[in-house]
Target: 4-hydroxy-tetrahydrodipicolinate reductase
Amino acid sequence: MGKAVIKAADAAGLELVPVSFGTEEESGQKVEVCGKEIQVHGLSDRESVLASVFDKYPNMIVVDYTVPAAVNGNAELYSKVGVPFVMGTTGGDRVRLHETIENSNVYAVISPQMGKQVVAFLAAMEIMAEQFPGAFSGYSLQVLESHQAGKLDTSGTAKAVISCFQKLGVSFDMDQIQMIRDPKQQLEMVGVPEEHLPGHAFHMYHLTSPDQTVSFEFQHNVCGRSIYAEGTVDAVLFLSKKVQLKADKRIYNMIDVLREGNMR
Model:
């Protein structure tokens, strides 16, 4: 995701700050993307490095695509240094995440889903749930989500859609989600193209009426990462404007970005 965002940002004409953070074992490595050499720093000196880089690039915005276990510590770091950030990483303690930002002065866009079109679908689901609560009362729900093997947690997008179905009257526990991470199952059962096994996001929702005579299916499948990278760049541009305007609101999501209506 980091490389995909760099490519999208470069194509959009944004200036890339050639600094990244990784594990202690990755410290000192250099990665070349779009003809730019990026220095990777480890965990031990990340606060001093980030503060130094932010001082040099005061208009900088951090993009965070890491792992669930890093979400809260990273947010606390960005808040401590005072750097605005866009976080597409899922998982972690989301309540604590929002509390961290609320207790600081930083601006942030936080969204478990950065794909603009998928976010629009989520927004439509939320509107339906708000306007027609209980419309699917008694219906049963099956949910299957498939992502590349490196995604450790259950899809945040699936959870968001399910929460809408719950408001619509469907009884469903999050631990009922069928999470597919095995490449063989992804090929044979889900139908993921082989070339996209290293990067995909397939979601399927199947609703059935109590008497089994009516069924509904919702599906959104993404191959590759470009949809998320493009949405991330839009979020960066959006957040940059909010920082410059010193907006009263400081915590945003991708629906806020969509509503602004200034996407490329």
Remarks:
- The radius of gyration is 20 Å.
- The first strand starts at residue 19 and ends at 21.
